[in-house]
Design brief:
Distance between the termini: 17 Å
Radius of gyration: 20 Å
Structural class: alpha+beta
Strand content: 25-35%
Helix content: 25-40%
Number of domains: 2
Length: 187
């Protein structure tokens, strides 16, 4: 499989990830502004050149990302409990971890609310058929893989008391009857 086709992009906080070229980005942005402000929007805002329009886009990047995020967040499906498997980058190295959350929205909230300023990418890894989250922050980059627990997985998680949390997460992922691929919600 071609390396470029391994990841199916779902969301990114980097507005440039939504476009194949700068020309496409400028055309779509101009069209959006015309729909919202009217045909003469660029002149009304004293934007006479593509450079000025591009600078306006950068200035409006935050509000556009909030719109993209809101659209994405509203489309997150209802799920069973989610196992988050994490590989986190810190100033002093990389660390593995994990957590079980009640559903996919809670899992995503847990990941993005943990850090301060960041760049966020959410995608399907087609090779492993998993939902992946990449979070770039001031120290390094964190990588998260999310798995939806099946009924059997939830029962195992709730009734296994002899294992550490790390051992329990490993056991859940060793047996495919304990988890579903979340990617099916977006494929």
């Amino acid at each position: 499989m071609n390396k470029e086709n391994i990841k199916q992009f779902i969301y990114s906080s980097d507005i440039w990830d939504y476009y194949d070229s700068e020309e496409q980005m400028l055309n779509e942005y101009t069209s959006y502004q015309e729909d919202f402000w009217g045909e003469n929007w660029a002149k009304d805002f004293d934007l006479d050149t593509p450079e000025q329009i591009r600078n306006a886009m950068i200035t409006n990047n935050l509000s556009d990302n909030e719109c993209f995020w809101s659209d994405f967040y509203q489309q997150i499906p209802d799920t069973n409990q989610i196992l988050i498997k994490a590989n986190c980058g810190r100033w002093d190295g990389r660390y593995n971890g994990g957590k079980v959350c009640e559903n996919l929205k809670e899992a995503i909230d847990e990941i993005i609310n943990f850090k301060g300023s960041y760049e966020l990418k959410i995608y399907i890894d087609k090779e492993s058929d998993t939902l992946e989250i990449e979070l770039i922050h001031h120290d390094n980059t964190d990588y998260y893989t999310l798995y939806e627990l099946t009924i059997e997985g939830v029962e195992y998680f709730n009734n296994e008391y002899d294992l550490t949390e790390e051992e329990l997460h490993e056991k859940l992922l060793e047996n495919e009857k304990y988890y579903n691929k979340i990617s099916e919600y977006w494929l």
